[in-house]
Design brief:
The complex is a heterodimer of chains A (about 425) and B (about 220). Chain A is mostly helical and about 425 residues long. Helix content of chain A is about 50%, strand content about 10%. In chain A, α1 packs across α2, α9 packs across α11 and α12 packs parallel to α13. Helices cover about 60% and strands about 10% of the residues of chain B. Classes of the chains: A mainly alpha (about 425), B alpha/beta (about 220).
Chain lengths: ~425, ~220
């Protein structure tokens, strides 16, 4: 098995200019984040759970309940695409509310989801009625097992557990409109809500992770993106509670907890409304909660952005004459709807603009279920080819031939995950206890 | 008189739901025409919110509060409007979130905007099975059917609904719109929808275009 510590040291040295050996995926990521660059721009493993399920053709009602199947499917699909790292999370926004007794919608083809039309919280007194967070309820044991398996099977600095961070958890527990109303109209109630989330749900949850040996957890908070919340509201509410949980867990549990991930992600949908000042304020808030020290473009309509703004922000926030590393994220819908040629052209444009001096990583802001695999393979091949250092002077002149890849099922045969994935396809709800 | 409409409009813009409803009740009690209260007060307010949204001066939290105030203002107004409309043609818009999904927020905003544009909105809710959409199309004979989803897995249900409409001979004369976070114009084209609503404001504009301009 690879040794992540050695890989990280290799990446750090390589990034500082001591270029020897062949860097692993992890080493490439570390080189780009701590130095300037490795041999090639890294492709950071994206959030991919429902796409991985679709590619592997495993049933949703098993996949979202069985930690080993979920982890193995991620690892297999990530390896099929040759990403440089793994991001293993399930439907991160639902576990806490489900365990607290929230009404859920379960489906044969999709992830479980909270039914916000039957909210868990409608008024302040509900906070006492809900009762304590019980880690044996719902799929919390599965989430903890996912963290353990991730650490065991793909160890490294990005392995660990996942959870739903404060603001998104409140949106799931009471519905976004009611949660917004509390923020804007009733600060006392809003404070009680955030305190409840932190002290009575998330901190006890982190204790369970810590006890299980999962000392690293990442809390998603996409409901705190812009324009769902303004940068001012993010700074007022999301950042302080994310930092509170982070410090509390560091001090009391010896745990690294990144709450508020994706808060401040600039997700304006209308290109005509892109606003540089708001974008910078959003990123400013985002850097305070991001687990990685990067300038991040996430789920937004990045294919339409002026990416010089991201570069300008990264230069402003950098230290010692270096820009902050840039995580340039291809929009999920762009990846699904574009032709391979359009994807190659976009990657060439970004590398030309952002990657020449290093400190650049490529990512996808959540891969939609039905994204054609050829699009992902094309993106990876384009980054590997065009992102090779030193970056070629004229990227437009480099032609990327269609990627050659085996169909997933053919490739899977003989892989360590083959057995569990093929067996999962035979599973029928009536074969054993129906999960939902 | 115009001062009263301006007050209603302001309450809607500022998301003051209780005040908006009270002002509408007062206006009705004073004998002001329901249609004028609607157009010069309530709709003027939600339209102003749309303008502020477009100008990057209002963000989703502001729009949510404004939509709440709009809905509150419509509660006392709707029965009076229906009574005064009589047999006048009002186009119907059936809307719902597909099975397995609960994309309620966007749908709520779309419903508010459609109502402001004069559509009679029949909201089937969330997690709506294909059969229920078909049944609603048969029952209400809407001008437009709107399908929403927020997951890239559940949005594929839209294809099935549209295919079933065709199979049952219900597609001709019916416009279909799709919307929700993972959807796109390309997806709308792929599934054979007539329009894609990128956000609530644009969904309303597209709906009006589909029925040939001003509604009602």
């Amino acid at each position: 098995m690879a040794n992540p510590t050695l890989e990280m040291v290799h990446g750090m040295l390589y990034g500082k200019g001591l270029r020897f050996g062949h860097p692993s995926g992890l080493a490439r990521v570390i080189a780009a984040m701590t130095g300037d660059h490795a041999d090639v721009i890294p492709f950071f493993g994206p959030q991919i759970h429902d796409h991985a399920m679709t590619v592997a053709r495993v049933p949703a009602r098993l996949y979202y309940w069985n930690a080993e199947l979920l982890v193995d499917t991620h690892l297999a699909v990530d390896r099929w695409y040759s990403f440089d790292s793994d991001t293993i999370i399930a439907d991160a926004y639902n576990f806490e509310v489900e365990a607290l007794g929230g009404k859920m919608i379960y489906s044969d083809n999709a992830m479980p989801t909270v039914d916000v039309s039957h909210p868990l919280i409608t008024e302040a007194s509900d906070l006492d009625k809900i009762g304590p967070f019980d880690p044996s309820k719902g799929r919390i044991p599965m989430a903890v097992e996912v963290g353990q398996l991730f650490l065991k099977k793909a160890p490294g600095p990005f392995a660990g557990g996942f959870f739903c961070s404060h603001w998104s958890l409140l949106c799931q527990a009471m519905g976004y409109p009611k949660a917004v109303r509390a923020l804007k109209r009733d600060k006392g109630f809003a404070t009680a809500l955030f305190d409840w989330t932190n002290d009575r749900v998330l901190y006890p949850y982190m204790q369970v992770f810590a006890k299980a040996g999962v000392k690293n957890a990442n809390g998603a908070d996409a409901w705190a993106c812009f324009p769902d919340l303004t940068p001012e509201l993010i700074e007022e509410w999301v950042v302080p509670y994310a930092l509170k949980l982070r410090q509390q867990c560091k001090k009391e549990l010896g745990m690294t907890v990144a709450a508020g991930t994706a808060a401040g992600d600039y997700c304006e949908e209308d290109p005509a409304k892109f606003d540089k000042a708001i974008m910078f304020k959003s990123w400013e808030a985002a850097t305070k909660t991001m687990p990685l020290n990067v300038a991040f473009s996430g789920m937004g309509r990045t294919q339409d952005w002026d990416m010089t703004w991201l570069r300008e922000f990264a230069l402003q926030k950098g230290k010692g004459g270096h820009q902050l590393p840039i995580m340039a994220s291809l929009n999920g819908r762009f990846m699904r709807d574009s032709t391979p040629d359009q994807i190659v052209a976009k990657i060439a444009e970004w590398i030309d603009l952002l990657g020449r001096d290093g400190r650049m990583l490529v990512f996808i802001g959540n891969v939609p279920a039905d994204t054609p695999p050829v699009n992902i393979h094309t993106a990876v091949k384009a980054v590997r080819t065009l992102g090779k250092y030193p970056i070629a002077a004229d990227l437009a002149s480099i032609k990327i031939a269609p990627p050659a890849f085996q169909p997933f099922d053919e490739w899977l045969k003989g892989q360590p995950e083959a057995d569990i994935i093929f067996k999962a396809r035979e599973w029928k709800p009536e074969n054993k206890k129906v999960f939902a | 008189m115009s001062e009263k409409y301006a007050e209603i409009s302001k309450a809607v813009v500022e998301g003051e739901d209780v005040q908006a409803a009270k002002l509408v009740e007062d206006a009705l009690a004073e004998g002001l025409p329901p249609l004028d209260i609607l157009n010069q007060g309530v709709v003027a307010g939600i339209n102003k919110t749309g303008e502020l949204w477009t100008a990057n001066q209002y963000f989703l939290p502001d729009v949510i509060l404004s939509a709440d105030a709009f809905k509150a203002a419509m509660v006392p107004l709707e029965p009076r409007l229906k009574a005064s409309q009589g047999d006048q043609l009002v186009r119907k818009f059936v809307i719902g979130v597909v099975q397995g999904d609960m994309h309620d927020l966007g749908k709520s905003l779309v419903c508010a905007m459609l109502a402001s544009a004069g559509f009679e909105v029949i909201d089937l809710g969330i997690d709506v099975p294909k059969e229920k959409f078909i049944e609603a199309v048969k029952q209400y004979k809407p001008a437009i059917l709107g399908l929403g989803a927020y997951m890239s897995t559940t949005m594929l249900e839209m294809k099935d609904v549209i295919a079933e409409l065709k199979k049952q001979g219900l597609r001709d004369g019916l416009k279909v719109m799709v919307g929700g976070v993972p959807t796109s114009q390309e997806f709308a084209d792929e599934v054979g929808a007539d329009a894609w609503g990128k956000d609530a404001m644009l969904a309303m504009q597209k709906a009006l275009e589909l029925v040939g301009g001003k509604n009602g």
